[in-house]
Amino acid sequence: MQLRHLGQVPYAPTYEAMQRFTAERSGDTPDELWICEHPAVFTQGLAGRSDHLLAPGDIPVVATNRGGQVTHHGPGQVVAYPLIDLQRTGYYVKEYVFRIEEAVIRTLAHFGVTGHRVAGAPGIYVRLDDPFSHAMLAQRPQRRGPGDGPPQPDFTGLGKIAALGIKVSRHCTYHGVALNVDMDLEPFARINPCGYAGLRTIDLSTIGIHAPWDEAAAVLGEQLAMRLTP
Question: What's the rounded Cα separation, in Å, for the pair 195 and 155?
């Protein structure tokens, strides 16, 4: 996998470049992992509803073809875009999502923070009362019995620190994951993050971890490259 650090780049041209790369790649094209940050922008997924954009104000809104609802990107957030041929890796979308989330969990562990999955809600969350606790969440994903419907996400006592939204085209992935490091969190109050009213969004600095963006980007990039490799 080729790792590319793009620095701070506008969202729309980067999105177009991902689409172009995916459309033009062949079975022999090496997979790539793009690491970057974006100027302030709101992005809407395919399922995005306008009523989740509460008051975007002067921040532009870009419609995309990824899954999910609305989220925010801005300086101080590490954004990672894996461009991977899943057919070549030999695993499916569900495992791909699991591997991305695991990379984020291991990145947080590097800084002493415990990341958690929540049943029914992609992304990674931390306990607001004790971000360093290893105690299992009651809201964690668990095996469902026959006939059980999908769980209703429960964010009680949690803050979202990493959002995930992907697209798969011709068995190739783009879009990816965003980890909040040290950013202006105010714009998240202008939306229902990921379509959930009242969901609190946090970053590493909010919970007392003052990590350089470059360090967080390097650790996340290393974890993703390792865990997405077949």
Answer: 13
Residues forming beta bridges with residue 53, ordered by sequence position: 191
What number of CA atoms fall less than 13 Å from residue 147's CA on the CB side? 0
Please, which residues have CB within 8 angstroms of residue 154's CB and are 6 or more apart in sequence? 118, 119, 138, 139
Q: Which residues contact 14 (CB under 8 A, 6 or more apart)?
A: 6, 34, 36, 38, 81
Two structure tokens written together for 10: 């506008």
Q: Write down the domain spans for the chain.
A: 2-228
Tell me the C-alpha to C-alpha distance, in Å, between residue 158 and each of 115, 116, 131.
10, 9, 9
Is 36 assigned a catalytic role? no
List CB contacts of 47: < 8 A, sequence separation 6 or more. Answer: 67, 68, 69, 195
Q: CA 40, 46, 52: angle at the middle one, nearest 5?
A: 60
Question: Which residue out of 194, 199, 216, 224 is catalytically annotated?
Answer: 194
Out of 3.30.930.10, 3.30.870.10, 3.20.20.140, 3.40.50.150, the CATH code matching 2-228 is: 3.30.930.10
List the pLDDT tens digit at each of the 230 positions of the chain: 999 999 999 999 999 999 999 999 999 999 999 999 999 999 999 888 888 999 999 999 999 999 889 999 999 999 999 999 999 999 999 999 999 999 999 999 999 999 999 999 999 999 999 999 999 999 999 988 888 878 889 999 999 999 999 999 999 999 999 999 999 999 999 999 988 988 999 999 999 999 999 999 999 999 999 999 98
Global pTM exceeds 0.90: yes
